[in-house]
Sequence to fold (947 residues):
Amino acid sequence: MNAPLIGARIARKEDYRFLTGSGQYTDDITLPKQTYAAFVRSPHAHARIKSIKKDKALSSPGVIAVYTGEDLAAAKVGGLPCGWLITDVHGQPMKEPPHPPLAQGKVRYVGDHVAVVIAETQEQARDGAEQMQVDYEMLPSVVDSLKARAKGAPVLHEIAPDNTCYVWSLGDKAAVDAAFAKAAHVTKLELVNNRLIPNAIEPRAANGLYSRAEESYTLYVANQNPHVERLLMTAFVLGLPEHKVRVVAPDVGGGFGSKIYLYAEDVVVTWASKRINRPVKWTADRSESFVSDAHGRDHITLAELALDKDGKFLAMRVKTAANVGAYLSTFASCVPTILYATLLSGQYTTPVIFCEVTAVFTNTAPVDAYRGAGRPEATYVVERLVETAARELKLDPAEIRRRNFIRSFPYQTPVALQYDTGNYEATLKAALELGDVAGYAARKKGSEAKGKLRGIGYATYIEACGIAPSNVAGALGARAGLFEAGEIRVHPTGSVTVFTGSHSHGQGHETTFAQVVADRLGIPIENVDIAHGDTSKVLFGMGTYGSRSIAVGGTAIVKALDKIVAKGKKIAAHLLEAAEGDIEYDKGVFKVSGTDKQKMFGEVAFAAYVPHNYPLDKLEPGLNENAFYDPTNFTFPAGSYVCEVEVDPDTGQTKIDRFTAVDDFGKIINPMIVEGQVHGGLTQGIGQALTEGCRYDSESGQLVTGSLMDYCIPRADDVPLFQVDTRETPCTHNPLGVKGCGEAGAIGAPAAVMNAITDALGVKDVPMPATSQTVWKAIQSSKTKKAA
Amino acid sequence: MAIKVSMKVNGKAAFAEVETRTLLVTFLRENLRLTGTHVGCDTAQCGACTVLMNGKAVKACSFLAMQAEGADIMTIEGVAKADGTLHPMQAAFKEHHGLQCGFCTPGMVINAIDFAKTRPNASEQEVREALDGNLCRCTGYHNIVKAIMAGSKAMASAR
Fold:
């Protein structure tokens, strides 16, 4: 029982229920008197609603109620809020157009919510929705962020006549321009960071329940942060007292950011449950997921890197148009700004950086954080620039990185962040060895002998996790705190339930957090259970996103554990008739130092709950502590990736032949789980690079990639077995020394893959996703150029 | 129109009156409350709804309940032993961390069991090809492939 649990590959506590079909996801919950909702969605990208007729739907079999935007407005239901205020280059607040849960007057993207039909069964709700008669006056639409800013473009919102949400910048423009003016070399790239559709395999779902007896609501919802969902919904939309609303995010089948947000459906089913006094359940079908989940990325960027003759970086200049979609989703505004421009220093000592971002409304689904959220976009800019510069200067891509690595910490970047620690040389060196870069030339010859093209690409990355501290984030426009809460409830017999404000939707917190607690308390891991995802159980929580759970949520737990041990020492001192200062706690035992007098953890817990021999005059009974933790800084995971591709020049088909990832996540609690996170992140990054590309038709605004047959999320034979390893520089400002690992793979992989493909083809750029057709076209146009 | 359907599910007789359009997966989830079979796409790509029908892995979203009339169905709830001991394929998924959020897992395990019956020593590439109809967004498939290779061997040696 005393073997160290931190760092151990422990099989997951949650696995049994998932492997036996005993998990409970939102759609698995069917309540007494359950009803079902279907949403009527806009078939047009942009249209005025002339009229909505409900009669036929209302007389459709099983239909109970139909509500439209008018009904919500009459009931004074508010709009969906944006959680981050960006102040533009002129000091003005960003444009925040109204975002009604059900459209009022106009629809602005295909899939926009027009009405809800509630019926006895899901099929009847969908049949009823088919009977809704909505008369639209179609308006011209625009889906591309550059076209949306052009003169004469269709206008989505009155308050933003140029479709611009904000123009924002970071960095010293004059210093950057001056550095470019005297640079020996400038590398320039026009990059598109392709729009992605998250596609968690569990579709979004929500089930709202109202109790007349309690005058309270319960919302079961596939969500990553139930307290945030509750706060936004009660305070900003429904105007309900928080204590009358319980939000439960039960088992959740993947999130990747797409389940952070407060969505229209969540609000509508909650509100409607009171109106009809029955629970209302909605579960997306996959087509609805495609049109209505918040999408990711969608940047168009002009990026420039200034270098001296030795390949030392002098300055970086970046101009980005970010498509935010038709409305501002919950955290849409901070993703292409605070989470993007601040990462442009990467692992390098680039002394000056300037970034300007224009956020643009278009007739597309809202865009928000998707695994990595701004950081993959930044890494793509930095690492494509660096690799291209190395090729232009005929420098080894590892060497150019080495010449520019940050080597002394703490390091203040020119884009606001201060890195606490890192060792970029260590991860690069390890990646070169593990990836057998030394053997690359021979493998390339082997590919050539088969008539194939082989390329190698590198990427290093910096990730800023556990966004913090709250006061700094607040000064930057955050409308929420960014702390985390944890509670340790020690039961009388010494077993422990831990309540965390983090939420697990695949990350394995029930195991990782139990390892931390069992290790720190020196008790068997079987004696520790983790509870999460229910506002009625957990005291508070900001949830799980941005790879923050272990660094912020884990630290809150550790702080609560420290309080448990401190109180335990007081109890033990009394039981052992010793001074509190003489009590040591180690591996589950309270000891009087220098003696063999001791009390087991369970004995102390029992004394706390059966306080017969207990210092009641000085100490409350019970052993239950909570803590809130607001980090003093971000954590900065970092890593080096090496990708080798083999391209068939006849078909353009690209195979990832080798992918090596060496990451520094600080201290690691469960290497098995961490590796799994890396594999998954890498695959989403490879998906972005090779297979995934959201397309809207530029004329009609229809989503062209609206199914899993049109939008290709990676299959098992699209990816190789990965070679992954870690190096460790512990985080300096949290007690576990942890940094977070959830997004790394998705951040670093796209640049590594695209650097490999452009190397194989000998071209400067290939757009993502590099499908067979795209690669084949790039090969043909490069042939034509060479011939000319 | 309502019709009566009857079949064997996880070794027990199951009956219900359903609509002619009711899908097999809806019958399992809503009528029998066997919610371990998941719906990830309802268009037959993701494989989360995979069940064994007369011993063969099929996607329950692509069958009408009435098409399963008289069939012998096994869902994920019927895979472990009656005493709760995991099937060797389930155990391999756990040992190799072949699951994260768990949503695709029932379909993955069912498909893997069917595959392993005839291919106990499949290569990595063969396993990957066999997973063409099962999508996972969490694991990157790495550990699923390892789990299926190990689980297949364990199934063969348990026979």
User: Anything to note?
Assistant: Chain B touches chain A through 58 residues (CB under 8 Å). The longest helix of chain B spans residues 142-158. Strands of chain B lie at 2-9, 12-19, 50-53, 56-59, 72-74. The CA atoms of residues 42 and 139 of chain B lie 22 Å apart.
